Amino acid sequence: MRSVKVSVAREKLEQDILAVAKRLFAQRGYGGVSLDHIAKAVGASKQNLLYYFPSKEELYRRVLHGVLDVWLSYMDALSQRPDDPEQAIREYIAGKLRFSREHPDDSRVYANEVISGAPIFATEIAERVIPALQADVAIFNRWAERGLCRQVDGRHLMVLLWASTQVYADWSSQISLVLGKKELGDDDFAAAEALIVDMVLRTVLLAPQRPEAPV
Amino acid sequence: MRSVKVSVAREKLEQDILAVAKRLFAQRGYGGVSLDHIAKAVGASKQNLLYYFPSKEELYRRVLHGVLDVWLSYMDALSQRPDDPEQAIREYIAGKLRFSREHPDDSRVYANEVISGAPIFATEIAERVIPALQADVAIFNRWAERGLCRQVDGRHLMVLLWASTQVYADWSSQISLVLGKKELGDDDFAAAEALIVDMVLRTVLLAPQRPEAPV
DNA sequence: GTCTATAGCCCGATAGAC
DNA sequence: GTCTATCGGGCTATAGAC
């Protein structure tokens, strides 16, 4: 009984640390954050942090693992509808934009790591991310072979899909400035989704051409 | 005479410091780089660095100013062809991809700053970048009003254009992994350009529809 | 302009009391 | 589990000799 309560409390603090660390790593990158920053933001001592996580790098690695779990969970839309490219693409774009909307810090932590050339997480990316992306590329290629869509370069199409959706998390501060708003709202994500879906479907789907999208 | 030689040598070291600092800030972000790292990489002492630049933040600011100069110089394609949307868009995409190809570290330094919410460079971004972007959006809107292209949301189209071109600098490590290469080559940038141009023109240009792009 | 020396602080990590 | 204390080192920046 007691051991359960203790373990629950321990679990909670551990999750709090991970959440706060994620936010700070997103904002300032691995080298820009100290254990003391994280500890103070979570209301614990630096030494207590090191009781839960053996080192700063291990804490960062745990954060990145959590980020990847969330990221990949939003990315399985393509395989869910193996015979319907249009609906699969619509759901894929919607899902990736929802990730940017709901987990911007996850996106930023991952972006920081990739921009740095993934010095710490290269192995995990190669083992978990690349296979997922290549599977999606393969789905595009299979659609093309079966005549369900046009022949496009699935690899670069995939790059464009990440780029154009994740930018609404990673670059939200600058996009807000361009839109003249304090922060992005549901309407902005809806407009982004409409444009990206329209562009991709125009490019990927076979004729007959789709009607003009509403302005 | 002597003062000229001295000033030239001074100028050269200053430029060397800025170049090395740019590379390191791109890789590890502002907080992940120390003056000592930069000094050692440039073959000078940390104290000598502080003779040329009054502080770390001022050095970083100078790097960012240089980055912005380069970035903006690649971005004036739209206004060069005010009556030809297709050619303007082609040149704009080509220019932005050339920037990613030729100045990846510039792109990464800027990306790092934006992801962090632009804590240091917010003012300069608001004064130099946002007006340039809004001018480009205005050009899109004018084309639409004059019936030269379809009504699209110029702001989100602009976001998509940055995102899909800068990703080839900022995310080059991961894109290389997906493509199964050590690093990106001219052919990869050409393939990216073909896809992005095709997608954007399909979306922006008026009917009659363009023929299928070559695979 | 470049050097040595150093101030004063923050860093990650460990030891040991309770 | 959380605390105080502390180690050894790196950090930005300054002072002053040459």
Brief synopsis:
The first copy, chain A, is mostly helical and 215 residues long. The first copy, chain A, is built from eleven helices and no strands.
Plain-language structure description:
The structure is a homodimer of 215-residue chains. The first copy, chain A, has helices spanning 2-28, 35-42, 46-52, 56-73, 77-80, 85-102, 104-115, 122-145, 154-170, 172-179, 186-204. By secondary structure, chain A is mainly alpha-helical. In chain A, 39% of the residues are buried. Chains A and B meet through helix 1, helix 7, helix 8, helix 9 and helix 10 of A and helix 1, helix 7, helix 8, helix 9 and helix 10 of B. Chain A binds a DNA duplex (18 and 18 nucleotides) through residues 6, 9-10, 13, 34-36, 44-48, 50-52, 54-56.
Write the layout of secondary structure elements.
The structure is a homodimer of 215-residue chains.
Chain A: H1 2-28, H2 35-42, H3 46-52, H4 56-73, H5 77-80, H6 85-102, H7 104-115, H8 122-145, H9 154-170, H10 172-179, H11 186-204
Chain A binds a DNA duplex (18 and 18 nucleotides) through helix 1 and helix 3.
Approximately what portion of the residues of chain A adopt beta-strand conformation?
under 5%
CATH topology description of the largest domain in chain A:
Tetracycline Repressor, domain 2
Mean pLDDT of chain A: 93
User: At the first level of CATH, what is the class of the largest domain in chain A?
Assistant: Mainly Alpha
Estimate nothing, just give the exact number of structural domains of chain A: 2
Would you report the number of β strands of chain A? 0
Please report the number of helical segments of chain A.
11
Main pleated sheet of chain A:
none
Helix content of chain A: over 70%
Q: Which of globular, elongated, flat, extended, rod-shaped describes the shape of chain A?
A: elongated
Which oligomeric form is depicted?
homodimer
Order of helices and strands of chain A: HHHHHHHHHHH
